[in-house]
Amino acid sequence: MTLSRELLDILACPLCKNPVVADESHSCLICHACQLSYPVRDGIPVMLLDEASALAADATTEKS
After folding, report:
1. Predicted local confidence at residue 63, as pLDDT
2. Residue 7 has what pLDDT?
3. pLDDT of residue 64
4. What CA–CA distance (Å, rounded) separates 49 from 36?
5. Is 34 in contact with 13 (CB distance < 8 Å)?
6. Is 55 strand, coil or helix?
7. Which segments within the chain are labelled E, that is strand?
8. Are 19 and 7 within 8 A, CB to CB?
9. Between the CA of residue 11 and those of 44, 56, 59, what are the distances in Å?
10. What's the rounded Cα separation, in Å, for the pair 40 and 46?
């Protein structure tokens, strides 16, 4: 299930208030500023800090 453009336009990271973007499968929303990922369950974004997970540090460790 994909998230509507209207919903994505109004959602923001609860920590920094910056916009979030959906990943390719729309299974999570990503805040690039905070490097956090928020899950989408049954088509509903779970925008809670307790549910957020840190983005993988693979990109930063590969450059080292």
Report:
1. 45
2. 93
3. 41
4. 9
5. yes
6. coil
7. 21-22, 28-31, 36-41, 44-45, 53-54
8. no
9. 12, 22, 25
10. 6
- Residue for token pair 């690039």: 32
In angstroms, the CA 31 to CA 52 distance is: 10
As a residue count, the chain comes to 64
Q: What is the per-residue pLDDT across 19-50, written as a single tens digit (0 to 9) for each?
A: 999 998 889 999 999 999 999 999 999 999 99
Domains of the chain: 5-56 (2.20.25.10)
Residue type, 32: H
Cα gap 5→22, rounded to integer Å:
10
Q: Report the sign of the C-alpha dihedral through residues 61, 47, 11, 22, in that order.
A: positive
